[in-house]
Amino acid sequence: MSRIAQAFDSRQWGVIASASVKAVVVTLALPLAACGAGGFTLEKADVDRSIITSSAPSSPAAPAADKDSDQTTIGNAVSSADVKELAGQAVPWANAGTGSRGAITELVELKDGGLTCRRFSATRESFDGVALYKGELCLAEAGGWRMQEFKAL
What we know:
It contains four helices and five strands. With about 150 residues, it is an alpha+beta fold. Strands 1-2-3-4-5 form a five-stranded antiparallel β-sheet. The chain is rod-shaped and about 120 Å long. It starts with a helix and ends with a strand.
């Protein structure tokens, strides 16, 4: 038998291999043991209050310019609607400038003392939510329509 073969068969090789395996096992197990040595329990775990997720600053309401623009768009839709042809159907409206849209309902035309007015309800769907409005538009002496009332409910 050659010397190399004797070295692989020797008892010393088995001792070295066994010691190497033990060293690897201890090296891998040591970090896990360190985690448990501190006595970590769920009772000691606490919520990290420094991390805030899903938060965005709240905006109070849509800018007044957007609501004014939407009011004008709704007024234009009310003034141009053919009340007799609608027969109670909703009139959709949309404002490309603000991205708002909605529907005008309960549209009625009233004549009181020679003054022609149209009362209506309108929904406004926008990035800031959905709102319901009541309004009244009256025909002015010059022939144009003027918003007499427009209030959120």
